[in-house]
Design goal:
The complex is a heterodimer of chains A (211) and B (296).
Chain A lengths: L2 H22 L3 H23 L2 H18 L9 H23 L19 H6 L1 H6 L3 H13 L3 H8 L3 H19 L28
Helix pairs in contact in A: 1-2, 2-3, 2-4, 2-7, 3-4, 4-8, 7-9, 8-9
Chain B lengths: L7 H15 L8 H17 L3 H7 L1 H6 L3 H15 L5 H6 L4 H15 L9 H4 L24 E3 L5 E4 L5 E4 L5 E7 L4 E9 L6 H15 L4 E2 L5 E5 L2 E10 L6 E10 L2 E10 L3 H14 L1 E2 L4
Helix pairs in contact in B: 5-7
The chains are: A mainly alpha (211), B alpha+beta (296).
C-alpha cells in the first residue's frame, strides 16, 4: 500500500468533508472551493468517457448542481470522492443514453480499425491515444477512467457503478483486454514501467495505486 | 500489455494513456461562474415555485422526494401536459434520462419565455439540447438555427432541403455538422464528416464505419438487407439499416455513407421504429435534395 497516497487521501477527505459541512450552511465560498478542487478531474473524466468536451462541460455543471442539492445526504464519515463520482456516473449514463437515442451516429474512426482498412501503423496508434480510447465502448472507458484516472479502489467502483466487486473486476479485465487489442502487441510495457501514482491534473486523489 | 490485466505494468500504460488524453482538454474558463450563477438561479426558483414554471424548476427536488416510479410518472405527465401532441411513448423512450429530461423540460419552458407550457414541440424531440439549462445561463449545446427551407453547411461542403415541419439545429457533438429534427413522426437526421486518411475505397470506408458501430454499440442489430449501393448527392454511396431495442422503445437507424475526395460523409436517419414508414417518406426530401456544394 502506498502510505503516502493513503495519508493524502485521508487529509483530502477531511478537507472535503469540512467544505461540505460549510456548504450545507449556505456558505458559497465553501461550495466554490469544492468545485475548484474537483471540477477539473470531473471534467476530464467525463471527457474521457463521453469523448466530447462540450458534453463534459455540461456534465460538470449538472454534477455540481446535483451535488449542491444532495449535500445533506453526504455522510461525512465516508470518503467524498467515491460519492462525487457516483453522481458523475449517473449523470454520464443519462447523457450517454440520451445521445444514443438522439445522436446514434458514432463518427466513424476508420483509423482505429486494425487490418487492411486502417492504413495507420502501430507506431502511429501509440503516438495518438485518441483512437485507442475511441475504440473502446463507453462502459469500458468508464471503468478504466474510474480505476486508473480517478484512482478509485475496486470496492469503491462497485459502489459507484452499483454492481458487485466481482463485476467490477471482470469489467476491468474485459476493458483492459479490449484496450490491448486496440493498442496491439507493440504497446506491451517494458520493465521500466512503474505503477506510479496517478497524477491526473496534478492532484493525486485518495485511494490511488494501493489496491 | 501483459496477459495479467491487473499487472501493475498494465496500470502504468493505462494511466499514462488516460493522462495524456485528459491533459489535451480543459473545461471552460467560466465554469465556476456558470455553476455559481446556476446555484443562485436554482435557489431563486426554490424560493418562488409558482405556477408551471415553478413546477418545472422544482422538479428535480420533487423527484428526489418521491419513489422512482412516482417521479417517472410525474415527468411523463408533465411531458404530455406540455407537449400535448407528443404521446407517452416518447416520454417513456427518454425515461432512461429522467433527470436530464426534467432539466430539459425546465429549460425549454424558460426559453419559451412565458412559462405556461407554450413551448414548441420541437423541444420535445431534442430533450438533450441543453441539459443544464434549468440553471446554467449560457447554453453551449444545440442552438436553433433560423428556420429555412434549405440547410447549407457553413463550410460550403453540402446542403439539403429541410422537409416541411422539420427544424434544424446545430450539433453539440464534434464531427456532426447538423441535426434536422421531426416531431411527428418522431425522428432526426444528422450529417457527420471526417477526414479520411489513406486510400480507402468506399466499401472499405463503409466496412470500417460499420465495424466501429458494432464495437461501440454491441446491442444494435443490422438489417438482413445488408449494405446496399445507393447515391447521395449524385455520388456513389452505401446504405444500411440497423435497429436498437432502446429498452422497448425500438429505434431504427438508416445510414448513408459516401466519400468525396478525402472527406467521408455519413448521413444518419434515426426514428421511432413504429413510425419509420412516414418518417422515412418525409426524410426522402432531404435525401433527394442532398447536394455537395451549396445549392440544394
Amino acid at each position: 500500500m502506498d502510505t503516502t497516497a493513503q495519508s493524502r487521501s485521508v487529509a483530502g477527505d477531511d478537507e472535503d468533508g469540512a467544505l461540505v459541512q460549510r456548504a450545507r450552511t449556505g456558505e458559497r465560498a465553501a461550495l466554490a472551493a469544492l468545485f475548484a478542487r474537483h471540477h477539473a478531474r470531473v471534467f476530464r473524466s467525463a471527457y474521457l468517457v463521453t469523448r466530447s468536451p462540450e458534453a463534459a462541460d455540461d456534465i460538470v455543471q449538472i454534477v455540481f448542481l446535483e451535488l449542491f442539492t444532495a449535500l445533506h445526504t453526504f455522510d461525512p464519515r465516508r470518503p467524498f470522492v467515491p460519492w462525487l463520482y457516483r453522481i458523475v456516473h449517473n449523470v454520464s449514463i443519462d447523457f450517454l443514453k440520451r445521445e444514443r437515442y438522439r445522436l446514434p451516429m458514432v463518427v466513424p474512426l476508420a483509423d482505429t480499425i486494425p487490418g487492411p482498412i486502417g492504413e495507420i501503423g502501430r507506431a502511429d496508434l501509440r503516438a495518438d491515444v485518441r483512437p485507442a480510447l475511441d475504440g473502446l465502448s463507453a462502459e469500458h472507458r468508464e471503468v478504466l477512467v474510474l480505476r486508473y484516472y480517478v484512482g478509485l479502489l475496486e470496492r469503491e467502483m462497485a459502489d459507484v457503478l452499483g454492481v458487485r466487486p466481482g463485476t467490477v473486476k471482470s469489467r476491468l479485465n474485459r476493458a483492459l483486454h479490449a484496450l490491448k487489442e486496440v493498442l496491439g502487441p507493440g504497446d506491451a510495457p517494458t520493465a521500466d514501467d512503474e505503477p506510479g501514482v496517478l497524477t491526473g491534473d496534478g492532484t493525486p486523489h485518495g485511494g490511488t495505486s494501493h489496491e | 500489455m501483459s496477459s495479467r490485466p491487473t499487472d501493475p505494468r498494465d496500470a502504468a500504460v493505462v494511466r499514462d494513456l488516460l493522462r495524456r488524453e485528459a491533459e489535451a482538454v480543459a473545461s471552460r474558463p467560466d465554469a465556476l461562474a456558470r455553476f455559481l450563477a446556476a446555484v443562485e438561479e436554482r435557489e431563486a426558483g426554490r424560493r418562488s415555485p409558482r405556477g408551471l414554471r415553478g413546477m418545472f424548476r422544482s422538479l428535480p427536488e420533487q423527484m428526489r422526494s418521491r419513489s422512482a416510479r412516482a417521479a417517472l410518472a410525474l415527468v411523463t405527465a408533465l411531458l404530455v401536459l406540455v407537449f400535448g401532441t407528443v404521446g407517452r411513448p416518447v416520454a417513456a423512450a427518454i425515461a432512461g434520462g429522467v433527470r436530464a429530461a426534467a432539466h430539459a423540460v425546465g429549460a425549454r419552458v424558460r426559453e419559451g419565455g412565458d412559462g405556461d407550457g407554450a413551448t414548441t414541440p420541437t423541444a420535445m424531440a431534442t430533450p438533450a439540447a441543453n441539459p443544464v439549462a434549468t440553471s446554467a445561463p449560457a447554453p453551449t449545446s444545440a442552438r436553433p438555427l433560423p428556420t429555412a427551407p434549405a440547410f447549407r453547411d457553413p463550410a460550403g461542403r453540402f446542403s439539403f432541403r429541410v422537409p416541411p415541419g422539420w427544424s434544424v439545429q446545430q450539433s453539440p457533438v464534434a464531427g456532426v455538422v447538423v441535426i434536422a429534427v421531426s416531431v411527428a413522426p418522431r425522428g432526426s437526421a444528422n450529417v457527420a464528416t471526417e477526414t479520411v486518411t489513406g486510400t480507402q475505397t468506399l466499401d472499405e470506408y463503409t466496412a470500417a464505419t460499420i465495424a466501429t458501430i458494432r464495437r461501440e454499440h454491441e446491442g444494435y442489430r443490422f438489417a438482413a438487407s445488408g449494405v446496399q449501393p445507393d447515391t447521395l448527392g449524385t455520388y456513389p454511396a452505401r446504405r444500411y439499416d440497423f435497429f436498437d431495442d432502446n429498452a422497448g422503445a425500438g429505434v431504427r437507424f438508416v445510414q448513408y455513407v459516401t466519400l468525396v475526395g478525402t472527406t467521408g460523409y455519413v448521413l444518419t436517419l434515426t426514428c421511432a421504429d413504429s413510425e419509420s414508414a412516414p418518417f422515412l417518406k418525409q426524410a426522402q426530401v432531404l435525401i433527394d435534395t442532398f447536394t455537395f456544394g451549396s445549392s440544394p
